[in-house]
Automatic annotation (TrEMBL):
This is YjbF family lipoprotein. InterPro entries: GfcB, YmcC_sf. The lineage of its organism: Bacteria, Pseudomonadati, Pseudomonadota, Alphaproteobacteria, Acetobacterales. It comes from the Bacteria. It holds the Pfam family YjbF. It comes from Neoroseomonas alkaliterrae.
Length: 225
């Protein structure tokens, strides 16, 4: 089934949702097509789990949680959606755009390469420090331009170290137009991220992303070596 038709079959999908997916994988275009809805998406119950063998993420935002299944991918760029309409776009292990929330991350642009994608390129990922700059657009209202923040500049420093014998913890401390610390937990041998806590806007809790039920090792989101 074509992807727009597939989305149209979802109960709460709008024409704007379909336009978003058609514009994928360019997050800047996705962010400009629609402002956030005045009505937030719904969240799943705590007992909800992914279907056996299904490629999925568990999303936790404060006390709310949901299972997001894979809608579309192109290389390391992936689009995920919960049954209630929460959407996240990822590039590798990083969340680069969201939809269905009262505040959405509309676009992410890097000045050069994303340091998260090159952490292990120089050898031991447990040592050293990496720096990077990115600019994000955040939309807080579908009708009030004054509450839309474009060009939020973030200067970030990343450090990696052992959290346990088989686990690597990557901490990314960002300053600038917003202040926060992202955390990524990865398998120390493969570099595959299995859990993260990521900033998606000042008005929201950190978004916890957990990898669920990846059907094959090749589909695990890796820290590129």
């Amino acid at each position: 089934m074509a992807l727009p038709a597939l989305l149209a079959a979802c109960g709460q999908t709008t024409g704007a949702d379909i336009l978003n997916v058609v514009a994928w994988p360019v997050p800047q275009i996705v962010g400009m097509i629609t402002a956030p809805s005045e009505r937030e998406a719904t969240w799943d119950g705590e007992a909800t789990e992914a279907a056996p063998g299904e490629t999925a993420l568990r999303l936790i935002l404060g006390s709310r949680r949901g299972i997001a299944t894979l809608l579309q991918e192109e290389g390391e760029r992936r689009l995920w959606r919960t049954s209630g309409g929460v959407v996240v776009a990822t590039e590798g292990a990083r969340v680069v755009a969201t939809a269905g929330l009262r505040e959405v991350l509309a676009a992410t642009r890097f000045d050069g390469a994303d340091p998260l994608a090159r952490l292990a390129a120089g050898g031991d990922a447990g040592e050293g420090e990496w720096r990077g700059t990115r600019v994000v657009d955040v939309m807080r209202s579908g009708s009030d331009p004054a509450r839309m923040r474009f060009g939020v500049r973030l200067d970030c420093r990343m450090r990696a170290g052992a959290a346990a014998e088989d686990t690597l913890l990557v901490e990314e401390t960002c300053r600038g137009d917003a202040r926060f610390t992202n955390r990524f937990w990865a398998d120390a041998r493969s570099g595959a991220v299995f859990r993260s806590e990521q900033w998606i806007g000042d008005g929201l809790p950190m978004l916890v992303v957990e990898i669920l039920a990846m059907p094959a090792a090749a589909e695990v989101i890796p820290l590129t070596r």
